[in-house]
Amino acid sequence: MAGRIPLVLLACGSFNPITHQHMRLFELARDHMHQTGLYHVVGGIVSPVGDDYGKRGLVASKHRLAMARLALQSSDWVSVDDWESKLEDWTETVVTMRYHYDRIAAQYHSSKDLPTVSEVPQLKLLCGADFMDTFKVPGLWRDDHVEEVVGRFGLVCVSRGSLQPDRAIHESDLLSRHRQSIFLVREWVHNEISATEVRRALRRGQSVKYLLPDSVIDYIREHNLYTQDSEMKNKDVKLRPLTKQTIQD
Amino acid sequence: MAGRIPLVLLACGSFNPITHQHMRLFELARDHMHQTGLYRVVGGIVSPVGDNYGKQGLVVSKHRLAMARLALQSSDWVSVDDWESQQADWTETVVTMRYHYDHIAAQYHNSKDPLTASDVPQLKLLCGADFMDTFKVPGLWRDDHVEEVVGRFGLVCVSRGSLQPDRAIHESDLLSRHRQRIFLVREWVHNEISATEVRRALRRGQSVKYLLPDSVIDYIREHNLYTQDSEMMNKEVKLRPLTMQTIQD
C-alpha cells in the first residue's frame, strides 16, 4: 500500500455494552477506506465516554472499558483507550480527537522505525448513521467543534439499516460544505445489534449469545451489570453536553 | 421446570456457512418456548442439507459440517448432526424429522433416568420467516409432508426483519389449519446476517469478522472455501426437490 495516507479510526460512544455491531463498524470502515485506493488504515481506537455524560442506563466506565478490552482481544488492529473516560468531566469529541491526533503525531515523530507509515497518520471519527443526526440536536454540538471534527479531521460514517446519512448531510449547510471529508460506508449485511436491545434482553433474562463475545457476556453476568436498576441510572439527569455548553457560544 | 413438555429444536438448511444469525435462532426460540410456560427445551440440532440439494454456491457438506461444529463449540445444548448430509440423495425435511424423532424417542425409552424428562420429548422444526414462504413454491413441498411437518411435529419460526410469517400462514389454508402448531418468535434485535451476504463479502476479500465465529473464518480461509468458482457451483442445476418430486403426487 505504498503512497497511501496512513489513517487511524476513532470511535467515541457509550459502548454500553460493546457489541459485535460496534466492532463491525471498524471492519467495514477499514475495507471501505482501503477500497478508495487513497488510504492505509494503521489503527483503530475505541474510546468509551466518561460517566459524567449522564446517559440513561450508563454503567460505570470501569466495566465498559473491561468489556471492550475483552471483546477486542481477538482484534489485531483495534484497541481500547481510557483517556476520555478518565477525565473529570464529560469531554467534547473534538477535544478527544485533538488528544489522540497529537499523541499519534508525537509517536510518528519520535519513532523513526515505522516502515509502514510514510507520513503523519490522519485521524478520522468513525460513527454510525444515527450519529449524523445528533448534529442537529440543539445545544449538543458547538458549530466550531463540528467544523473541526468534520472539516479538519473527517468522518467515516457507516449506515445502519434504513437511516439515511445523506439526508443529514443535505439538511446541514455545515456538513454539506465538508462533504468531501465525509466518507459514507454502506452496510449491506443488516446487522443492527443495538446495545439498547441487548440491555433489554439482559434485563429480561433473555439470551444475548452471538450478539456479543462470550467473554463479554460472562463478564456481564459475573458483575450483574444490566438490571432494572442500572437502566434507571441518570433517569432524570440531562445529558452533560446540554448543561456544559450554551447554544450561543 | 416441572410438568413441562420436553422439546428438541431441529434446524435444517444449507448452513453455507453457518453464521451468528443461525445460532441466534436457537437462542431466541428457546427463550420463547420457555416463556410460554409449557415447554422445556432439552436440545437443539443443526442438520446441514446434503450436497445433492443442488443449491447454487453450496460447498461440500464435509466443510459445512466442520464449520458448524466449530461454531457450536461454545454451545452447551445445540449440536450438529450429519445424518441428513450423509444420505445418498437429497432427503425431504419430513424424513429427517422422523429420523430424529425416532432417535430421540429410542434414547428416551432406553434411559430410565426419571430426572431428565417426564415424557418423550417433542421435536419441532426451527426456521426463519423466509422458510414459511417456501411452502408456496410449486413442487418444492408435498402437501402430505407439510401436514406432517406442521401438524404432527410443529414449527418454531423466528421472524427476520420485515418478512411477515403471519401473512404466509394466512395465505395458506394448510398452514392456517395448523395455526396452533406454529410458534412465531419476533426478533427485536435486527440481526440479519445472511449467509449470502457473508459469501459475497468473502468473494470480494472483505471482512466478515464478528458475523461468524473466528474459528469458522479461519477454517474458511484455510480451505479457501468461498470464491467466484464456488458460487458458480450448481449454477445450471435445478434444486433436487423440484426434480425428485412431481407436483401432482
Strand order of the largest sheet of chain A: 3-2-1-4-5-6
Estimate percent helicity of chain A.
Answer: 40-55%
Mean pLDDT of chain A: 88
Roughly what fraction of the amino acids of chain A lie in strands?
15-25%
Give the oligomeric state of the chains in this entry, treating copies of one chain as homo and distinct chains as hetero.
homodimer
Radius of gyration of chain A: 18 Å
Largest pleated sheet of chain A: 6 strands, parallel
Query: What is the 3D form of chain A?
Result: globular
Tell me the span between the first and last alpha carbons of chain A: 43 Å
Count of discrete alpha- or pi-helical segments spanning 4 or more residues of chain A: 12
Q: Helix/strand-derived class of chain A?
A: alpha/beta
Largest interface: A-B, 28 and 28 residues
Low-confidence stretches of chain A: none
Give the strand tally of chain A. Answer: 7
Topology as H/E string of chain A?
A: EHEHEHHEHHEHHEEHHHH
Summarize the structure.
The structure is a homodimer of 249-residue chains. Helix content of chain A is 42%, strand content 17%. By secondary structure, chain A is α/β, with parallel strands linked by helices.
Features:
homodimer; 12 helices; alpha/beta; 249 residues
Description:
- 2 copies of one chain form a homodimer.
- The model of chain A has no long low-confidence stretch (mean pLDDT 88).
- Chain A has 12 helices and 7 strands.
- In chain A, helix 2 packs antiparallel against helix 10 (214-223).
- Chain A is globular and about 50 Å long.
- The first copy, chain A, has 249 residues and is an alpha/beta fold.
- The termini of chain A are far apart.
- Chain A: Its main location: nucleus.
